[in-house]
UniProtKB/TrEMBL annotation:
It comes from Methanosphaerula palustris (strain ATCC BAA-1556 / DSM 19958 / E1-9c). This is PHP domain protein. Transmembrane segments: none annotated. Gene3D superfamilies: Metal-dependent hydrolases (3.20.20.140).
Length: 372
């Protein structure tokens, strides 16, 4: 069976996360969005695990996969996938001696390097790889040029691309040739323009966490989907204060200090990926670029926010008619969408045809889009 999976989210026990990120709301958002496999996020947190236990079997029929993110030495973030909460508990116990906040913070800091963390994950039967691998603050490639520099002799099982990259950014890096790429939302809110904004289409043999992990391990990833990379906050090299964007050569010439305000210039994901590329692009599953439906409606109606009442009223009408958001964006004929709202129908068709003008983000500010 082919299932859409978002495997990286967070709980209210992590920093800067909505208090509404609770199992009931996340399952409801999954059904509205069209996500059939959800990662719990923050699976090392004991209370968060207990909140999920009664929802592992749920009326929505959604497969719940225990997942976690930890911050290791050098502020590198690692994404961890597990088969059950017993593995989460065992990993918690192994990492607790090296973490002062593993029982308090959903995304704990662990005083171990990538090789040591990966060895512990593998010892309990889990999977691990770099989270948002190209992001310029807390990622593998923000600190290192090669996987081995971080993970040593321990293999990685996956690599999460992050919102500012798609598959093409890693396809030309030779050491990643056999590593599965994942695209996940890293959502801090259950709102459907955040949750499920990136996902993976997996060929899964059974509706269980073990089957989901097997599909990833065996590279049965049929498609990645998510942002245009230019929409991400760190796609372009830019000043972190005034957000002025620079070429890589200009940033180097300015010694990574903005001549306008003296603030730091942060290297963008696009430039970093070009630096790391060392060969021809390998074959990868297709990457489908999508824009959340509520943001399309916001653009059409000209409102200030995708949460505006008239945006949500029209959004709910589409969900009531067609079942879920991803079905509207991918499968529903334009003429059927246009029965509800012709301008939204035209915008969705423009998205499908690639008639999107992108205004790249950088320096911590999201990019934007318009339709041609």
């Amino acid at each position: 069976m082919h299932l859409r999976a978002d495997l990286h989210i967070h709980s209210p026990f992590a920093l800067a996360v909505s208090k509404h990120m609770l199992p009931e709301q996340l399952l409801a958002s999954s059904a509205i969005k069209g996500i059939q496999v959800i990662g719990t996020g923050d699976g090392l947190h004991p209370t968060w695990r207990s909140l999920w236990r009664e929802h592992l079997v749920n009326p929505e029929g959604i497969c719940v996969v225990p997942t976690a993110e930890v911050e290791g030495l050098h502020r590198i973030h690692h994404l961890i996938l597990m088969e059950d909460f017993d593995q989460c508990g065992a990993l918690h116990d192994l990492l607790k001696p090296y973490s002062s906040n593993i029982d308090r913070n959903g995304r704990p800091q662990v005083k171990l390097d990538g090789e040591e963390i990966a060895a512990h994950v593998h010892s309990v039967g889990g999977m691990i790889g770099p989270a948002h691998a190209f992001t310029p603050w807390t990622s593998l490639f923000a600190t290192y040029d090669h996987i081995r520099d971080c993970y040593g002799d321990e293999p990685i099982d996956l690599l999460e691309l992050g919102l500012s990259a798609d598959s093409s950014y890693g396809a030309g890096i030779s050491e990643l040739r056999q590593v599965p790429f994942l695209s996940n939302s890293d959502a801090h809110s259950p709102q459907t323009n955040k949750f499920g904004r990136e996902f993976n289409l997996l060929d899964v043999n059974d509706l269980t966490p073990r089957a989901v992990l097997s599909a990833i391990r065996e590279q049965r990833i049929l498609m990645n989907a998510g942002f245009f990379p230019e929409e991400g906050k760190y796609n372009r090299t830019a000043c972190i204060e005034c957000l002025h964007q620079y070429t890589l050569e200009e940033a180097i010439a300015h010694h990574w200090r903005c001549p306008v305000d003296g603030a730091r210039i942060k290297k963008g994901v696009a430039d970093r990926a070009r630096e790391l590329t060392d060969g021809p692009s390998s074959h990868r599953p297709p990457y489908l670029h999508l824009i959340p439906l509520s943001e399309i409606i916001q653009r059409v109606l000209g409102t200030a926010s995708p949460s505006a009442k008239k945006v949500q009223r029209l959004y709910n009408e589409f969900i009531s008619r067609f079942g879920d958001e991803i079905t509207v964006l991918i499968d529903t004929p334009e003429d059927e969408i246009s029965i509800i709202n012709p301008a939204v129908g035209a915008a969705v068709q423009a998205l499908r045809a690639g008639k999107v003008e992108l205004h790249p983000g950088g320096g911590g500010s999201y990019g934007s889009f318009s339709f041609r």
